[in-house]
Amino acid sequence: IEISVIDAGYRLVVVDGLMRRDQAGMVIDSKWRGEGETQRAYDGLVPVSCKCLLGPNYYLFDPAYCDEVDIVEKVGPQDCLSILLSLGGMPDLVLLKQIAKELLIAISPHYAIDIIPVVGAQKKGVEPFLQFCDEYNLKPVVEANSLRDHYRSSDLFVGADGGSIYEAMLSGIPAVTFILADNQWQECALFEEIGHNHHFNRHYAVCKEEIFTRIIEIFSAYEQSVELLETFRNYYDCMGVKRVAQSILEYDCGSIA
After folding, report:
1. Cβ atoms 28, 14 nearer than 8 A
2. Which of 58, 120, 173, 244, CA to CA, is 20 to 30 A from 235?
């Protein structure tokens, strides 16, 4: 397909590349792979002339995240703590329900919590899930165009890694993450380089007790947890969209596919 696109006279821009061999003229991949390694990730995989936009500086934040006027300063445990729970844009609602219920059971004896599960664009099984949320007094987010306000009003993000880490950290809240598939495995030390200290390289079912313990530890020293994020805010300056747009405009091309 790529060759046919190029042969038709188009320039090819690949967004969220998968570190595979590509004939693209530009690759945009915001994944952090470590100091140095991030910028070398596509060496030998794409043409020498390919322009690679790599790392968190090229994450495509919703422009709404750039508005800092109403960012709420996090001051630690209050009467009730909010946990934003997300497994991505098309979540497994059975797993989401299990995690939400088990978080309540594990954390509520220690802290009063509100759990905000993100349903995303998922359609199948939504009604039973919403009934479950009513039963347990959860506050689901359904088909939201942006999660900015939910990040900013929450105290902690729990879920799968990926762009959610960047969005949580730009919003000034700690994140506890795990993997949904084996190919998401990544050295925890690499996450720590960009300020994310609470990642588990295992599936939820395998490490859930450790996740619950870590959440309690974060809440027990919440102000310190938030302060640790400040050192890394320069990684999340919300200028990714502008950088990518400018790079595409500067790209020597006629039509872009």
Report:
1. yes
2. 120
- Which residues, 6+ apart, have CB-to-CB distance to 195 below 8 Å? 169, 228, 229, 231, 232, 235
Query: Six-digit token pair at 204?
Result: 């939820």
DSSP E strands, the chain: 10-11, 13-15, 26-29, 51-54, 81-86, 113-120, 141-142, 156-160, 175-179, 199-203, 255-256
Residues 6 or more apart whose Cβ sits within 8 Å of residue 29: 16, 17, 19, 41, 42, 52, 53, 54, 58
Q: Are 253 and 8 in contact (CB under 8 A)?
A: no
Contacts of 84 (CB under 8 A, 6+ apart): 116, 118, 147, 150, 151, 154, 156, 157, 158, 159, 168, 173
Residues 6+ away with beta carbon under 8 Å from 123: none
Give the tokens for residue 109: 């004896």
Q: What is the largest CA-CA distance in the chain?
A: 63
For the record, the structure tokens of 177 come out as 């993450």
Q: What are the φ and ψ backbone dihedral angles of 51, each rounded to 5 degrees?
A: -90, 120
Q: If you search the block for the tokens 């950290």, which residue do you land on?
A: 169
Q: What is the pTM of this model?
A: 0.86
Asked if residue 255 has pLDDT above 70, the reply is no
CB atoms within 10 A of CB 28: 22
